[in-house]
Amino acid sequence: MLETERHRIILSAVQERPVVTVADLCALTGVSEATVRRDIAQLHIAKKLRRVRGGAEAIAPPQFVGINARPFAVSQAINIAEKRAIAQAAVDLCEDGDAIIINGGTTTFQMVHPLTTKRLQVFTNSFPIAEHLLKQSRNTVMLPAGAIYREQNIILSPFDDDGSNHFYARRMFMGCRGLGPLGLMEGDPLLVQAEQKLIDQADDLVVLADSSKFSRRSSLLLCPLTRIHTVITDDGIEDRAASMLEAAEIRLIVAEVAASDRQKRAEE
Amino acid sequence: MLETERHRIILSAVQERPVVTVADLCALTGVSEATVRRDIAQLHIAKKLRRVRGGAEAIAPPQFVGINARPFAVSQAINIAEKRAIAQAAVDLCEDGDAIIINGGTTTFQMVHPLTTKRLQVFTNSFPIAEHLLKQSRNTVMLPAGAIYREQNIILSPFDDDGSNHFYARRMFMGCRGLGPLGLMEGDPLLVQAEQKLIDQADDLVVLADSSKFSRRSSLLLCPLTRIHTVITDDGIEDRAASMLEAAEIRLIVAEVAASDRQKRAEE
DNA sequence: CGATTATGATTGAAATTGATTGACTTTGGC
DNA sequence: GCCAAAGTCAATCAATTTCAATCATAATCG
């Protein structure tokens, strides 16, 4: 990992939320605390961020859309370490030049940090993801037409023909509300609409689902398991859930949660 | 392998991704590290890329969007008082509930401030306008499909059928590069494309043009004067320009520049 | 053919990184 | 308010990586 890459990731993380801890940045960059501290000190001198005890904060208050919005913020906080590890594993699947689709959601949003060091074509219906990638990375960003829904933070057109169907990608990344034998469940009808629009624009459907998602159910079935190509989850997944995916011939990727974060989680 | 050949490969690699390591470039070019380093040093001096420890990166770091972006920022500063007054007059034409289209540009961007207190349906191809309205107002925000162009800060689809044609509005607001007898002139081909897409989606075309625009010309003609319904300008407009608009039966609104700002302008 | 230039290898210098240590700060309980 | 515990930080050092300088060889040019 080059120094400039780390700096990009750190700045990206600092923009996302009011403060980031040194441990957060270690997990995000994969380097030691000492290096993160040195980087923060450098960026502080360069006035790219403000150094505070325990971590760093953005130099300017202007925040991204939705991160401060209530519904986004609360689910943002839970299982953050797992989501980060899963998102990292998702980005690891991509190579520079790839065209991908990222569906809106708090898990998929975590992909923006590792994405800052990539150069992809990203099609997303998530306004915060688009905004972040636009400001913090050199990726090409493409959007569907539609109205921006504030609560869900997604762009959704009321029309079937909204131009998004011109964009095809190798992979589509999406989160979900729950993942069971019936298939992929979603909680919000609006999200179902948005996801169904995109789901046929990609060859492989990659689902990002932390291990808690396997025990959650919902009333809205988005698609059957057979449509899913890959599931990325954390190492808290139970054997039963793994067997279910295996039976459906779904590729399973288990992301390792960073040790520092794991400890933190165990203590809580 | 010729030197110029290597340089081409190196530059291309740097453009493709945010950073490349020396090892990457060795593999790509098949030459030794020493040569790659020498090449990077050369290109660094020639300002074709930036040399960083471990490799090289593109010379222009991720361009930031919005009012801080360079190309945006410079034109943002000039005639700011006039632009504000014009934008205010433009927003005064709107009533809560109206559906309007706002084309991207620095003059039209000034509309976001008076718009914060309104409740309109705003369709815009400008990412900064959408972002601002989303964060600072309760207006409904709608976007066309397409890629986000960083320099122009607009969203533009490469396809004719991009879903934006589902949105119709009473008025479309746009800026311009120049306004002459031939019609409305624009400076950037990309802007022409974006504007031509929208121009037929509204009944009335309202052009925001500060008085300096009447003496500017450009090579790209966007539409004839007859298509324009209203022009909003500042009180620096000359009689000759006003007569031209009158002859074309265009409604002319002259926005009063606030006294305090006028003074500021005089001082400069 | 000689001279100039480009290339690759070698080597020592310099910078970066991660771990360790001890000092300092904050937090929570009493 | 005081103390202990945990957390945070700066300084240091060793290991690694990266860089620059040098030199020998190969290629190019006049």
Structural overview:
Two copies of one chain form a homodimer. Chain A has 268 residues and is an alpha/beta fold. The first copy, chain A, folds into two domains: 3-58, Arc Repressor Mutant, subunit A, CATH 1.10.10; 70-267, Translation initiation factor eif-2b, domain 2 (Rossmann fold), CATH 3.40.50. Chain A has eleven helices and 15 strands. Chain A has a seven-stranded parallel β-sheet with strand order 6-5-4-9-12-14-15, with helices on both faces. A three-stranded antiparallel β-sheet of chain A has the order 1-3-2. In chain A, α1 (3-16) crosses α3 (33-45). Chain A is globular, with a radius of gyration of 18 Å. Mean pLDDT of chain A is 88; it is low at 67-71 and 263-268. Chain A binds a DNA duplex (30 and 30 nucleotides) through α3. Chains A, B: Keywords: DNA-binding, Transcription, Transcription regulation.
Strand order, sheet with most strands of chain A? 6-5-4-9-12-14-15
How many strands of chain A? 15
Task: State the low-pLDDT regions of chain A, or none.
Answer: 67-71, 263-268
Helix-strand makeup class of chain A: alpha/beta
CATH class of the largest domain in chain A: Alpha Beta
Oligomerization state: homodimer
> What pair of chains forms the biggest interface?
A-B, 39 and 39 residues
What is the chain-wise order of helices and strands of chain A? HEHHEEHHEHHEHEEEEEEHEEEHEH
- Kindly state the percentage of residues in helix of chain A: 25-40%
Number of helical elements of chain A = 11
Spatial shape of chain A: globular
Strand content of chain A: 15-25%
Enter the CATH topology name of the largest domain in chain A: Rossmann fold
Distance between the termini of chain A: 31 Å
Under CATH, the homologous superfamily of the largest domain in chain A reads Translation initiation factor eif-2b, domain 2
The average pLDDT score of chain A comes to 88
Largest beta-sheet details of chain A = 7 strands, parallel
